[in-house]
Amino acid sequence: MVCMTLAFALSVPAFGADAAKAPPRTPISIGFSSPAADSEFEDVFYLSIAIILADRGYPSVKAAPADEPVLLVGYEVSGRSAMVRLELAEGPGRRAASAEGMVRLTLELDADLEILVDDLLGRAVPQAPSPALAGSDEATKTSSGVEAASEPPEAVAIGGLFSSELLRLEDTLRTTDTRRLEALARAGVTSFVGGFADYARLGATAALDVAALRLDPAWSLSVGGRASATRAFMNLGVTGGTMYLATIGPDLRAGIGARQAQRLSVGLSGGVAILALALDDGTTLARAEPFVDAGVQAGVPLGRDFFLGLDARFVVVFDPEMLIMGTSPTITLFKEI
């Protein structure tokens, strides 16, 4: 933060002096067009393109919805990439031009957009020196070979507030797929509380979830099914058999979105629980009861859309003779498809 503040403070006098020598260019208003508009992507596109233009000496602003933009950015997202078309209107010192190409919606987004913007400016201002020649002797010569008076750099602004030397935005979306499938496998323990703890305090638990996932940059929502099985370890002094508990039912989770590399969500599930008592004589007694559970889960990326994390839930089985309750922390392996 200190370095950023010093850079900004040092840049202000220089910008003011340059502006006094050469009037700044009129800002280029940037607008967007898409068959499936996405405001989150447009914010990323705008800042990336504005920074690239600023690096080349062109200030810019985001066009208001009712305005006719000078630079129209048409885009169509497909998976992890987007087809982008840039259309620049005619203006002082430039002709109308367009450029289009595919860009990757990853950390390489800025590099791909730089190629498109350079292509666009090369068509609109064919006599402008390339960025590689800026500051060299060739950059001060006209097409006839006569040296021209070098001009001081113009003050550059992005939306009237930021300079590309002070702030840079990197794409942080872990994926652009908004509709995905996910599978979760869990294994851990269940710690029983309440009256049932007199019979068993601990159990071994395994669970499997399959769900449809809606993944927005800012939030996520998944709806699917969840099944679990738990074997209770009976306390010393408890005889007669071993208790098993199985649950199955719908599962709903809501959490953070694709802008974060990690996963974090809260969940709610309910349905049917099967209580089974395996007696010592080899017979089994079983009955179905309603249950509900709720909890949180978190995971960190392993790569290739795999995540490893923890899931903690509190489960309640509504047996007419006794509420069976317990907390169930588990290690969880996630896979998004």
Describe the structure.
A hairpin with an 8-residue loop joins strand 4 and strand 5. The chain is of the alpha+beta class. Helix 2 packs across helix 3. The protein starts with a helix and ends with a strand. Strands 6-7-8-9-10-11-12-13 form an eight-stranded antiparallel beta barrel. 16% of the residues lie in helices and 47% in strands. It is built from three helices and 13 strands, in the order H-E-H-E-E-E-E-H-E-E-E-E-E-E-E-E.
Main structural class = alpha+beta
Mean pLDDT: 81
Which blocks of ≥5 consecutive residues have pLDDT under 50?
1-22, 128-150, 160-169
Distance N terminus to C terminus? 39 Å
H/E series: HEHEEEEHEEEEEEEE
Strand arrangement, major sheet? 6-7-8-9-10-11-12-13
Using only C-alpha atoms, the radius of gyration works out to: 30 Å
Q: Based on Cα principal axes, name the global outline.
A: rod-shaped
How many helices in DSSP terms? 3
Annotation, overall tally of beta strands: 13
Q: What percentage of residues falls in helices of 4 or more residues?
A: 10-25%
Q: Characterize the biggest β-sheet.
A: 8 strands, antiparallel, barrel
Beta content: over 45%
